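WARN retry 2 of 3 for item q-0093 after timeout on previous attempt; input resubmitted unchanged.
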Amino acid sequence: MQTWNKRRLINTLAIFIIAGVMVYLIGSGHLPRKQQNETKNIQGFAFDTTYQITIYQGGTKKTLQKCVSECSSYENVISRTKETSTVYRINALSKKYEELLPGKLCQSLQKGQTIMLSKQQRTEYETKLKQALPEAYTELACHVSSNGSISFQVNDTLQKLVNYSFKYGKLSKGCFTMGIEPVSSLWDFSTDQPTVPQDAEIRKALTYVGDEHIRLHNDRLSFSVPGTGIEFGGIAKGYIADRLKDLLRQDGVTSALIDLGGNILCLGNKPDGTAFRIGVRQPFSDRDAVIDTVAVKDLSVVSSGIYERCFKQNGKFYHHILDPSTGYPVDNTLMAVTILSKASVDGDGLSTTCFGLGLEKGMELIDSLDNVEAVFVTKDEKMHYSKGYAKYRATQK
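OK item q-0093 returned
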């Protein structure tokens, strides 16, 4: 078995990893000495990855500390693996409820059939949930409905993430779903010895996967099928990068780079007035091998690719971008997709969406959207550009 660990590949300022595709800042060492001395930088670890925020103009060290606090706050909400996070607790309550509900009732709900729970039954399940997971139950104001669904009270951040996820679920025709968690939790690409889950486990997990089981009404998030789980790995870092950019601007920052585990967001230009130059690494090559370079201002550069979090088992290659219809890695002609967009959350969602759609449908989607461009890299190492991508290319400049 051969593995590649994403964390080992994350470098500082010069090199950025974008959800499977590495990018690096080109020309940052050519700033005037005075401006270099004014640069403020902080690094940390959150969202199961390394992040770095670099301020070139404006702001103070306190600004960076605010960013660190923001990252910590968001991790406490969206982390799928941190046991005290909101998302973890939602998933834990859903799974515990599945254990409590009789198998026949669970199967009926999975088939979309109607059931009716009495008040006594609902009270019994809620009491057992509170006994098993008291903090989670209380924090989320957990409730079991007469139709068998389970619901939770969620904050503004989760409401927005859920709505963004619904948006990309529709755009992708199901290739993107926050409901992938029952399957993605079976695959652990962060370990040094990843293995392929049992096929029976994957088939069972697929019965819980899909946005159709998830509803949001005001501040109540509900699952119609017990055992449903959510995760926001496809959009969370992009969403948070956008919020950090807002924070930086509020503190008077006019030039900065935000790198959240490879999601790159540029605020303004470089201090000398020129655009930030971001290079995209050639898949499966040395980290300094670049296949393209873009010159960007106030843009996000986010990618999805098959070669960062991946492994081989029995001669077969597996990567972390999962197909919600099969439970296995997406299998198409693509190696990587890079998205240029104003909002990083859009780049995050679209990179995963387009990878799942494949080259033809993914490109068709990008060309139908305003202010979004993309480059697709296929397994034959050819590059395919969206209609307006050329204006950002800096390789030949």
